[in-house]
């Protein structure tokens, strides 16, 4: 007889492993299946985020930022360093260690929460007596059954038609995080989140970086003022970003990659690079789930169709994270995982899509929550805006990092915060205050009247809230 569980989670990324932990906390007998392999063929739970996404990219961003500081900013502090060099192999090895620490941490959490972990691919099979079972194909093959199934199989990098990833010259996020030596010339297609983060890493390490973007506007989903400020900063750093291009034929040869494209003026151009990263978005991953056998509904993008509660069209089958609609973010996947486990337990799990923060971990960092100024205009909402530059913040000056600003958007009548947009130092940390404020439906005045430590970057948040009412104190 097959092993029986209350809850089976397919996928051990942030959506899956967090759902498994929450379900176990709620007293369920839980299994989690994940197929990711480490270099030795062993289990490496944590999904895209841990293995080839959030965590390794932040490790490389940190290393490259240290290198950049040593080269360009130590001197102004009176620190003289000579002969700064980068051992790329060591940087990559450190990144791999950080990844492994996270993999091991998740394996420990499975044990701690008494979750049965299966290393292999999970797929639906039709059961003889009707319904379905889950086949696990790993070192051995076995079939397990669960009263509830949570699918959290994530996403894969989107390839350009006719240009497969070889992960040697034409790279997805996977190869982009494993380049063995600083490429002299690096090309990227897509100036979205991965394009900017990975472009920044290799630019800081000395590559000549060109990003080709199809849209005529830079970071179209970001608040216009923030996008403009960030574009200025990236251009100053030497990132070459060409907007409004149309990418044509890509030739991947022994000497590198040649990209034919038309620029915004309609002129034919060629970009010759040593490595090309393609970062044009990601596609939901249902490969190998055998969804057809059980009639699991997918939409036209290949995402699993779910309702607001993450229920699929099959009874007892739920789906969360990148494989369903909504932003492809680790924390969104986690929130959905927790909410689904709680709904299975009869509780009222909830995800507030209006307060999901976004962060781009470049320098300056970009972070936001809620609606942008252009969205409020398009929605016809009467709003007030307040902005405060880091240039006028004492802590930012002491840090030597005064690029950017904090911007508040509040309802013109009620003063409720509708959006907060930050470009500048530690934006990734500063945005949390805005998320909490919006979750509690705070007004700009609420933040303006809260005592913030001095000197701290968070004072820029308070001042931006004061700016909504045109009463900044330090600007
Ligand atoms: P995944 O993390 O993709 O996990 C899915 C897991 O399921 C994988 O381990 C996969 O092997 C496994 N799986 C798939 N099918 C099967 C099957 N049939 N059987 C068994 N196992 C299966 N998000 C952020 O919030 N912050 C960031 O800083 C950030 N940085 C990123 C950087 C990069 C370069 C990339 C590519 C992404 C980044 N993301 C970031 C996005 C983030 O990684 C995803 O949103 C997140 O991983 C989604 O979680 P998930 O659990 O839905 O899927
Ligand atoms: P993206 O959606 O952020 O950006 C893709 C960019 O490519 C867009 O600007 C798009 O206009 C452009 N593009 C699409 N097709 C093109 C074409 N044919 N030619 C030229 N340009 C084209 O996708 P990206 O950067 O691949 O990242 C995928 C997802 O991973 C992100 O949307 C995000 O959800 C997640 N992620 C999150 C991070 C974070 O939270 N810090 C970091 C990295 C990724």
UniProtKB/TrEMBL annotation:
EC number(s) stated in the UniProt entry for this protein: 1.8.1.4
Annotated compartments: Cytoplasm
Swiss-Prot/TrEMBL catalytic activity: N(6)-[(R)-dihydrolipoyl]-L-lysyl-[protein] + NAD(+) = N(6)-[(R)-lipoyl]-L-lysyl-[protein] + NADH + H(+)
Chain sites annotated for binding NAD(+): 190-197, 213, 281
Binding site for FAD: 58, 122, 153-155, 322, 328-331
GO biological process, one term: 2-oxoglutarate metabolic process
Gene3D superfamilies linked to this entry: 3.30.390.30, FAD/NAD(P)-binding domain (3.50.50.60)
InterPro entries in alphabetical order: Class-I_Pyr_Nuc-Dis_Oxidored (IPR050151), FAD/NAD-bd_sf (IPR036188), FAD/NAD-binding_dom (IPR023753), FAD/NAD-linked_Rdtase_dimer_sf (IPR016156), Lipoamide_DH (IPR006258), Pyr_nuc-diS_OxRdtase (IPR001100), Pyr_nucl-diS_OxRdtase_dimer (IPR004099)
Gene Ontology cellular component annotations, sorted alphabetically: cytoplasm
Main location: cytoplasm
Superkingdom in the source lineage: Bacteria
Keywords from the UniProt entry: Cytoplasm, FAD, Flavoprotein, NAD, Nucleotide-binding, Oxidoreductase, Redox-active center
Annotated catalytic residues: 454 (proton acceptor)
Gene Ontology molecular functions: dihydrolipoyl dehydrogenase (NADH) activity; flavin adenine dinucleotide binding
Cofactor: FAD
Keyword NAD: yes
Major enzyme class: oxidoreductase
Cofactor note: Binds 1 FAD per subunit.
Positions in coiled-coil regions: none
Repeat found in the keyword field: no
Miscellaneous: The active site is a redox-active disulfide bond.
Protein family membership: Belongs to the class-I pyridine nucleotide-disulfide oxidoreductase family.
Protein name (Swiss-Prot/TrEMBL): Dihydrolipoyl dehydrogenase
